Amino acid sequence: FFLYNALPYLGTVMPVTLIGILGLGFYHGAYMAEVVRTGITAVPAGQSEAAISQGFGHLEMMLFIILPQALKVMLPPLANVSSNLIKNTSILAVIAGGDLMYQADSFAASTLCYGPAYVTAGILYFIICFPLTRLSIRMEQRFKEVH
Question: Which residue from 79, 42, 43, 78 is spatially nearest to 64, judged by alpha carbons?
Answer without folding.
Answer: 43
